[in-house]
Amino acid sequence: MQDIGTMDDTLPYTAYDTLQASFMIVGILIMVVIILPWVLLAIAPLVVMFVLLRRYFLPASRDIKRLEGIARSPIYSNFSSVLQGLSIIRSFGAGEQKLKDFYAQLNMHSRMWFCFLATQRWLGFRLDFLCCVLITVAGYACIPLRDTLGSGIVGLMLSYVLQLQGVFQWAVRQRYARAIAV
């Protein structure tokens, strides 16, 4: 029940953040396409690559998060049972065995948590790479048009495209944070 309450509390904020970042991304891409229409040829394959990354990442991340939750549950139940039976554990001298059990459960949870963080880093690296490709294409597309484009417009476009890297990754993480948690 607490998970539903947490989702009810955080979902509006997550939706707002996702929409805000999505509008920023769309606005930046529209500005780039208006200034350099040929960049649209590079954006289309990048969108396809993003969709393929999404198809690969989301099921794996959801399964790893589920396994992390499964590995977390025994830690809490073991802790509460040890607290309730502490006098019995001490009287039979089973403290060392309970400690070994706890370390084994904690180790399993740490493995799953590391896998979850590794999948997040995996996605982050690839999203950063896609954004770097867009930055490179936009930068090199300005070179042949250096006589027709003003330096102010090029500087504005490049500064917004550079911001795209952080905003894009943040928007994707916000978007999939709730999908993975469900």
UniProtKB/TrEMBL annotation:
Subcellular location: Membrane
Membrane topology note: Multi-pass membrane protein
Claim: Transmembrane helix is one of the keywords in the record: yes
Keyword terms of this UniProt record: ATP-binding, Membrane, Nucleotide-binding, Transmembrane, Transmembrane helix, Transport
Record flagged with keyword Transmembrane: yes
GO molecular function annotation: ABC-type transporter activity; ATP binding
Principal location listed in the UniProt entry: membrane
Membrane-spanning intervals of the chain: 20-53, 127-146, 152-172
Entries under InterPro entries matching the protein: ABC1_TM_dom, ABC1_TM_sf, ABC_transporter_C-like
GO CC terms, sorted: membrane
Span of domain ABC transmembrane type-1: 1-174
Pfam families associated with the record: ABC_membrane (PF00664)
Gene3D superfamilies: ABC transporter type 1, transmembrane domain
Family according to the record: Belongs to the ABC transporter superfamily. ABCC family. Conjugate transporter (TC 3.A.1.208) subfamily.
Name of this protein: ABC transmembrane type-1 domain-containing protein
